[in-house]
Design goal:
This protein is of the alpha/beta class. Helix content is about 25%, strand content about 20%.
Length: about 550
């Protein structure tokens, strides 16, 4: 994966950019660009809804009661994600980080949360932070997933929950009162009514503010004893508290359990769920222990280290917008979450900005990220697992959505199925479940037609843009400069140490011959690749003549292998 740029699956002949042979369906170009979190191309998936290769683990804990539509386990597993990495699916999409939903053991019982009977298929209802959910897989499956991802140059971001347990059911006991509160329900009228409360009814809130020593829940000790690991778990906890001198308070138990995933498996980053519902100092503690665990893993596995980057934490501060710069306003106080271990925050504003023109979006984001937010980052998205009002919910404009998301400054979050126009509007269900249908592999295989397009064409579009973004840090982490409004051309430049990356993009153009002035961007004699048409061009007298059937181009420097 780290070799010089290689050809597409077809072959390319260096010409004056005309009549070049190519394979339009293939966009898996290898690359040797440095990985940059600020411009990462992140794929977010729900483990249970992506790919099922181990049907033998589909039923556990007698979870066989009927659920509401899309609210039961559907069989996706960790091994299924690994298989798609091995098949090159993510390589072709230009993905360099995978964010997967929580994998810890979920509550065993059925819950009626007002929108229908549901199991913890999504991973956000923890029963035991020290065990893997068997519906998702085993420790061995997870280790194989992380190592396979790393071999493909893909980082792993694990979704983690610290501020609440799973709901109480007939077979899932409530954690002790010393650990959790069950009221009041959050009203979001200020700081206290956002953090010292339960998100919804029957979702016990961890007392993360407490510094009182607490005992382990009896049900957890009994569970570990039955599984034959009680003594080991107790020994590890004692070692943790002896090393850190933290009080044996609820948050520190969970921090220990979460950071074990880094120390054992080499996870590269955390996506923090419900970050604004916990005292911000908790995240500083988590980041400190996460970074130590990451360094321990690197020292123990020097042959597996991808680079010297620090541990990555991105926060879901629900409602944070890039225009707010570095503060989230609770109404009675403002908190800068970037001061508490976060390298990036999910940007809830992009789905609205995506309705604006390309230049309005790109210039705004470049200006903010290279000035007020310099040294920080945001993760942009068009759809997600719990956003009922995404951009283009009916998938009428998946080409525009891909272009705006993948060419925007900042990091990009591709929610599973964005690239294949998976339905976000499932009938017969309620709430966010409609956003969580199973990945539409069959539709891709059949190349079905939706609205006015074939979904394989959508996938190819996302592959080309994603490959361009992954191979060129300038796309997501560089400085934006409009070259021409009509035709619309822009340049991005990224500099870090001795490394420089420059790209030139044209959008909303006419198919056919394009005479492109590049004299201030690429040197005479330089070879550049158009990632969209697959043509290699040589700069002559400050110009490129590109004849393609497309209304855009994505130009980056080409170095022959």
């Amino acid at each position: 994966m780290n070799s010089k740029l290689l050809l597409f699956i077809g072959f390319l002949i260096i010409t004056a950019c005309s009549d070049t042979s190519r394979d339009n369906s293939a966009s898996n170009i290898s690359y040797d660009a440095p990985f940059v979190w600020e411009g990462a191309n992140v794929y977010f998936l729900l483990t249970d809804r992506f790919n099922n290769v181990k049907p033998e683990n589909d039923l556990n804990f007698r979870r066989d009661q009927k659920t509401a539509k899309l609210r039961g386990f559907m069989g996706g597993d960790i091994a299924g994600i690994t298989m798609k990495i091995e098949d090159g699916y993510f390589d072709k999409l230009g993905i360099n980080a995978i964010w997967l939903s929580p994998v810890v053991e979920q509550i065993h019982g059925l819950v009626n949360e007002g929108t229908g009977d549901t199991y913890g298929y999504h991973g956000y209802w923890a029963k035991d932070w020290t065990a893997f959910e068997p519906n998702f897989g085993t420790e061995e499956d997870f280790l194989n997933f992380v190592e396979t991802a790393h071999k493909h140059g893909i980082r792993v971001i694990l979704d983690v929950v610290l501020n609440h347990t799973g709901p109480v059911t007939e077979i899932d006991l409530q954690w002790p009162d010393s650990w959790v509160r069950t009221s009041p329900t959050c009203t979001y009228q200020g700081y206290e009514s956002t953090i010292s409360c339960t998100l919804v009814e029957n979702l016990p809130d961890i007392k993360t503010e407490s510094n009182e020593n607490v005992n382990l829940p009896d049900q957890l000790k009994e569970k570990w004893a039955k599984e034959g690991r009680l003594e080991l778990e107790l020994e590890e906890l004692q070692e943790f508290f002896d090393r850190t001198s933290y009080p044996e308070a609820p948050r520190y138990y969970i921090i220990k359990w979460l950071t074990d995933m880094i120390r054992k498996f080499g996870v590269d980053g955390f996506r923090i769920d419900t970050a604004k519902h916990t005292e911000e100092s908790v995240w500083s503690d988590l980041y400190k222990e996460a970074q130590l665990a990451f360094q321990d893993w690197k020292e123990q596995n020097p042959e597996k280290v991808l680079d010297e980057k620090e541990f990555y934490m991105v926060g879901e501060v629900y409602g944070y917008n890039i225009s707010a710069i570095d503060g989230y306003n609770f109404g009675d106080s403002i908190v800068n979450f970037f001061d508490y271990g976060f390298k990036s925050l999910i940007n809830f504003e992009f789905k609205y900005d995506a309705h604006n023109s390309y230049e309005e979006i790109f210039s705004k984001y470049s200006s903010l990220l290279n000035n007020e937010l310099k040294g920080k980052s945001v993760l942009n998205y068009i759809s997600s697992h719990d956003d009922s009002a995404p951009f283009d919910k009916l998938r009428k404009n998946p080409f525009e959505a891909g272009t705006k998301l993948l060419l925007c400054p900042g990091a990009s979050q591709v929610y599973y199925g964005d690239e294949s126009a998976r339905s976000l509007n499932a009938g017969g269900t309620k709430g966010d479940a409609e956003l969580r249908s199973f990945m539409n592999w069959e539709e891709l295989d059949e190349n079905i037609r939706k609205n006015s397009y074939n979904i394989q064409d959508v996938l190819i579009h996302w592959q080309k843009l994603g490959t361009f973004r992954r191979n060129h840090p300038a796309v997501g982490a560089g400085q934006h400069k409009m070259i021409s409004r009509e035709p619309y051309y822009f340049q991005r430049i990224y500099n870090s140490g001795n490394y420089e990356d420059v790209v030139l993009v044209g959008l909303d153009l006419k198919p056919g011959l394009k005479e492109i002035d590049v004299k201030d961007i690429f040197e005479d004699g330089m070879q550049v690749l158009d990632y969209y048409s697959g043509k290699i061009c040589q700069v002559k007298k400050g110009k490129i003549s590109l004849n393609s059937d497309y209304n855009l181009f994505l130009l980056g420097k080409w170095e022959a292998p």
